Amino acid sequence: MLGDRSRERRRMAAECLALARQISDSGLRASLVEMAQKWLDLAELSDHERWHEALRLRAVEAAIGRELRALYRTSSRTDIWPF
């Protein structure tokens, strides 16, 4: 899922950095470090997407709860559901 995606992207960033440590060419090293940064940016985006999904699901749960409370308040049996 999204957590797996984030983990994989962080692994790719680590590989780029490990390779950069082994390269003596400064231009190539800079490119690998830049690529690692892009992988980390993508990993952060995955984490952000996961947070938004959790927030969206919480909003849906809250909406369902409001609807259920509204339905049971208008019912003639409110004495068994005091909320």
How many discrete structural domains?
1
Category from helices, strands and their pairing: mainly alpha
Global geometry: rod-shaped
Please report the number of helical segments: 2
User: What percent of residues are in strands?
Assistant: under 5%
Q: Sketch the major β-sheet.
A: none
Q: What's the average pLDDT?
A: 84
Runs with pLDDT <50, length 5+? none
Termini separation (Å)? 37 Å
Query: What's the alpha carbon Rg, rounded to whole Å?
Result: 24 Å
Helix content: over 70%
How many E strands? Answer: 0
Series of secondary-structure elements, N-terminal to C-terminal: HH
Question: If you had to describe this structure to a student in words, what would you say it looks like?
Answer:
There is one protein chain. This protein is mostly helical. The protein has one domain. Helix content is 84%, strand content 0%. It is built from two helices and no strands. The chain is rod-shaped and about 75 Å long. It starts with a helix and ends in a 9-residue tail after the last helix.
